[in-house]
Each structure stands twice: as structure tokens, then as C-alpha cells.
Amino acid sequence: MCVLPDLKPFGNVPPINKQELLAVVTESGGPTDVVRALLLSDDLLQREAVLAGEVELDHADLAVLSLQEAKDEQTLPLFLEPAQEDEPEASGILIAVDRIWRRYFHHAAKIARMTHTHFLATWVGFEVGLRNAMAKARAEALELDPGHYIVAPELADPEVPFDHILAEWTAASNPLNGLEVLDRARWNWLTGHERWYSFSNDEVAAYTAKLMLLNRWHRTLGKGVL
Asked: Can you give the pLDDT of all 226 residues of the chain as single tens digits?
């Protein structure tokens, strides 16, 4: 059984970092694959920041990827590398980073099925839906074809409305406020889907997602980047 420290409300300093959480879950025999799948999403964001020169490699907050993978000096895990026979015909219009995210979301959905972790499956649906709603809004604002920037739409939860989030996001006075709008929406969603005292994979997964969000926001405030 995983014994994890309490999480304070959004915006406070996280009580534990990603690496420590993964170690606790692994050592206690918890759902390591589920936690790794969730933490990998944050590692991929850090990888993008490293490759864009926004974050120095030795300051990257990684829990699953290696420094060499983050710097693109080593190939990513095979499940993130698209196989031609697995890619839909439309994938040719996707940029490289979107192809990686497509493979990532399918990997996380597969882990959810294999481990019977309902929370992870619903989290994938929410994150894919939010990502695609933002991509569509950006594309339409620039008079581009939104279809070129949509990732894994088959995994998105069609029941989740994003209009109110996008309205507040586009009305934000600066990029940092815009990030806060998105992350508070994520926090609120997580709070509504966590399952305390269930002693299940879902409880650990929900904790991981909230902790990951707290650590990301703490980095944002400290460094001005995700």
C-alpha cells in the first residue's frame, strides 16, 4: 500500500517531487506502470522545453525519460516511435511532436486498459479533448486548417465541454494567466474525479496527476516556463 503525503490546494509548494513519488510507488509495490504513464506526459513537456532552449538540460525535471532522450541524443522508447503500419493516412500532415503525443496518448490508454485503471482512461479523454480544443481555437484564429493539428481525436471524451475554459483562456491578460486558467481547469477536473480511500490504482493515479500538476505549476512560477 502506498503511503503518500497530503496535497495542499493548487498553487502551494508540492510535498514531494516526481522522482520521489515514483520511488515510493515502486518500493511499495504500487501501480508503477500507471504512475510512469502519467509522469511521462510531464517529461515530454520538459523534453519540448529542452529542445526549444527554454530549459537547460541539467535543470530538466525528468522522472521517466533519460537526459539523453530529453536532449534527442537517444531514441525515445519504442512505443513513442510511430510504426508506419500503425499510423493513419492523415498522420502525414502531423508535425513530429504531435506524432509523439499521439503515440503517447495511445500508450497511456493501453496502460489504462491493461491495469483496469478507470481514472487514467478518463484522464486521457480529458487531456486529449482539451489539447485538441486549444489546437482548434489557435488554428481558427490564424485561419489555418484545424485538422492539421488534432491529435488522437478517437480518444477524446466527447461529453466534456471546453467552451467555458477556452473563453477564459483566450480572455487572459497575459500568457501566465492563460496557463493558470488551463491548470486550474485541470485541477478542478482532477478534484471531481479522484477516489479517496479506495486503495486502488485509481486513487494513486489521481494523486499522481494532481502532484504532477502542482510540480509543473511550481516550475512555471519559478522559471516562467512549463
From this structure: 566 788 877 667 889 999 999 999 999 999 999 999 999 999 999 999 999 999 899 889 999 999 999 999 899 999 998 665 455 544 445 688 899 999 999 999 999 999 999 999 999 999 999 999 999 999 998 999 888 899 999 999 999 999 999 999 999 999 889 999 999 999 999 999 987 656 689 999 999 999 999 999 888 877 544 4
CA-wise closest residue to 35 among 205, 203, 206: 205
Contacts of 25 (CB under 8 A, 6+ apart): 2, 31, 32, 35, 204, 208
Q: Where are the domains of the chain?
A: 18-223
pTM of the model: 0.90
Collapsed DSSP state (helix, strand, coil) of residue 77: coil
